[in-house]
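Encode chain A's predicted structure.
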Amino acid sequence: MMSERRYRAAIVGTGAIATIHAEALRRLPGRADLVAVADVDLTRAKTFAERWDVPHTYDGVAELLDAHELDLVHLCTPPEQHAPLALRCLRAGATVLVEKPPTLSLAEFDTLAAAEADSGGHVATVFQHRFGSAAVRLRRMAAAGDLGRPLLATCATQWYRDDEYFAAPWRGTWESEGGGPTMGHGIHQFDLLLSVLGPWREVTAVAARQARPTDTEDLSMALVTFDNGAVASVVNSVISPRQTSALRFDYEHATVEVEHLYGYDDRDWTFTPAPGQATLLTGWNAPADNVPSGHSAQLAAVFDALDRGEAPPVTVSDTRPTMEFVAALYASAFTGQRVRSGQIGPDHPFAARMDGTGAPWKETSAP
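Encoded structure for chain A:
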């Protein structure tokens, strides 16, 4: 069925992740036209535009917004630019699809949410792992009570990034990325965890800088309790030579697992019913389209929502618990205290910056 409307889209920032956005748009023919791109490096923007047959290029967002009435702007810049550029787009009435992390801090995110409420546009965060068909099926079965109570979960993002990766000047600093693997790598996996298990209650965490030449951590670990009684562990690393992204959910009646690296499909999932619960396999294995996680799946959901006149997923209300979780993890790791949901208010030091009162390994100048 054809979309009710064909949308006018633009991409801001033409680095590596922009290619994934352009590919996602191309996989959804008839839904949108990529009419323009912008990048501070105009030569790079023109090279990108030639590759993807984009008619207009700009070296600034202001020029882009002045020249076009856009429905959707894909923000693919380094994280420090997300909030100020998203605010510009909202003022122009455009909906913004922003790469993770959407902002550098919880306070900055709340400013963005307030601006959305006063604009004609919306803000959606790219958390594409929510949209694979197996994750959708898991949430549906869990919500229906088919799996029983959630008891235990594990979430591991163990990736490897060498020193050369952090040579890019915007990587590995609080000022430009807002955090290390917690903020920029593991956030996809534990966002999926949170979308399945629901509201989190309390976090106890550690973070360390073990090997990489960064201001931020290169690993973190957290123990999390949820309102529904479930307990989970979360590991985020960029120092793990054997890379994996793995989640496991232990319910009363089944264990559901996925292991992949940067994206999954149904074949990456395993469903193990508890003794006497074999009939649950019928629900899990019911014939359905195998939709991989990825930008195309989320972008299709974005267009579907816009067709209905609704805020596109993942909304600011969907994203805030994940951003608050990040702030709570850092607050717990750097203060040695448990942090409860709702504890990080507007005046809390970890609301303004994810490193709050300062990372334990931060070098201080001699008096």
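The chain has two domains: 7-128+297-315, 131-269+322-349.
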